[in-house]
Amino acid sequence: MPVKFSLLNEDNGARLGRIETKRGNIDTPAFMPVGTAATVKALTVDQIEQTGSQIILCNTYHLYLRPGTERIERAGGLHGFMNFSKPILTDSGGFQVMSLSKNTKISEDGATFNSHIDGKKIFLSPEISIDIQKKLNADIVMVFDECPEYTKDKDRIKSSMDLSIRWAQRSKIEFGTNNEKMLFGIVQGGIFNDLRKECLERLTDIGFDGYALGGLAVGEPQDEMFKTVEEISPLMDKYKPRYVMGTGTPGDLLGAVKRGIDMFDCVLPTRSGRTGLAFTWDGKLNLRNSKYTNDDKPLDQNVDCPASQLYSRNYLNHLINCNEILASTLISWHNIAFFQDLMRKIRISIKNGNFQDFYNQHFEKLNY
Prior knowledge:
This protein has 368 residues and is α/β, with parallel strands linked by helices. It has 2 domains: 4-266, Alpha-Beta Barrel (TIM Barrel), CATH 3.20.20.105; 276-368, no CATH class. Helix content is 42%, strand content 20%. It has helices at 45-50, 60-65, 69-74, 78-82, 94-99, 126-136, 154-175, 193-206, 222-232, 250-258, 268-273, 306-309, 313-321, 325-352, 355-366; strands spanning 4-11, 14-21, 24-28, 30-33, 56-59, 88-91, 102-106, 111-114, 121-124, 140-142, 182-187, 210-213, 242-244, 263-266, 277-280, 283-286. The strands form 4 sheets. The protein has an 8-stranded parallel beta sheet. Helix 6 packs across helix 7 (154-175). The longest helix is centred in the last third of the chain and has 28 residues, at 325-352. The radius of gyration is 20 Å and the shape is globular.
């Protein structure tokens, strides 16, 4: 079946929508757990599905290096390889090339870098990145871009943006035509909104199935991120999904939804879970803290998840301080369930036309 996005309702700037794919629907605003190496760390796919997650993100860079494209393609793509039946979005590898690799050299052709695993020299180009994502059989594919570090050097950002646009054009050519998949363009431009607007206009001229804001959540203050989203989001095609890559905290999600964003991904729920940090409707809990040795309440009775309701804070404190593997599983499971509970309640509030009330009630408490 052809993939399509429908805008179902608007509540001031907030948007309610649905992406329909052959592997299932994605209700937006949507949060995508990150399955870096074809696994959402410490969790089974059944647990991920129990949280209400309708899509996950996997990393092209990591999967290209290990286990390699051929092994995954032989298994029928990522869905067969990791036994996950729902939609998958793959990033292009551009961010990891910048953030993880040593001695990265950028040219018009692409990026040459040393693997962070064994130092082996690797080359990625728009064509190679898209070819990998097609072999991974992702449902939503991202163009290959350069994601520069946070900087106020406008000339550096402009040069990077221009290159990313040329790479986006090449990505689209390599992607070709496939009405069962979506190809997203990535709007770069740093903190310079005139560059962001220019980039969006040029990407729109090329034409993509959705548009992402890249180069955010890379060190800029939250208010700068919100300012960028507030200025650029309304200029994006109203009838195509809008995605902020790599964000964020519950407060980031609320603030970006308010400003018109439909899709998010972040490693925060699972990375925090592995260190004993739990996100709840009452705020963030550091379960390593000794005060939880006397707390026999469940982690969060308001979240419909076994990890949230069946295990006490006292027990979780014991597990995390003993470095037991189960601690990572239970707290990560709860955290993703909490994020999905937040997104579900956001969607209900937009449907009912009272998102602003929901935002006012929860933003301060959840903006941690």
